[in-house]
Amino acid sequence: MIRLFAAFAACLFLLVPAGVQARPQTPAPASPPVFVSDRIIVETRGSGPDVVFIPGLGSTGAAWRSTADRLQDRYRVHLVTLRGFGGTAIEGNANGGLAGPAAAEIERYIRQQGLVRPALIGHSLGGQIALRVAAGMGDAVGRVMVVDSSPFFPSLVDSRATAAQVEPLARLGYQALLLFGDQALKSQAANLGVDMGLAGDMVFQGLGLQGGDRRVLAQGLYEALTVDLRPRLPEITAPVTVVYGWTRDPENPRNRLEGLYRYGFQGLRRPPRFERIEGAGHQVMIEQPGPFLSAVRRFLS
Q1: Rounded to whole angstroms, what are the CA distances from 138 to 142, 236, 242?
Q2: Measured between alpha carbons, how far is 246 from 254 in angstroms, rounded to an integer?
Q3: Angle formed at CA 262 by CA 261 and CA 268, multiple of 5 degrees
């Protein structure tokens, strides 16, 4: 019986192709699960090292399309949109905070999708969100670029300013947005931001590039003016690059931005790199797309 079984097994072996005999069966790598969130939407394209783009107040991932289109041949780009911006449904952002939950969801996205030390690029409020993610994830983030953003916007006016001092103005903006909407608020931005100088310019002029739900715009405006992330800067281990619009005009506040930024970012473990984009205002990537793309390529290389 044993001999009969051995002969039968030998016949089976001869019937199997040689390639199949030598190659062990290995399962195909599993695709990452579909990411579902009631706080953010993420559009992904391209292949290569991961780059996560986070838009500013009232903008969607479309604000980064011009840059992403020129990177996706070498990088895998992830365009984040906060729900409620543009024409997206507000869903979970109808209640509670905005930037904190968005940062938590971006962290979850990075972990769930298996991104390896991604680069983060955030504009304005999105720059603050990028700083939150970098502080929360430590070495899991490769590098960070903040675009015309600050860990505390009022510090661009007065280094002694506190969130408590700015809160009445922020609440006024919050209530005006809920009552009149972003278009009406933009028309009154100079009046509302007159005491905030450049900080008011950066926050109010960034409003409503694509608009959005009044509730999420109002909450984002309030947080951009009152949240102070400077105490969290020592938690960031990734190198940071600060990109900002600049002018040669010595009478323009933007001419003196680098000194203000050096003060605001001094809590980082290592000094950040500064990239000024001449001729750009707050919407740097849209107003000067060529020089901005060059800055991004230097940042990623």
Answers
A1: 9, 6, 18
A2: 5
A3: 105
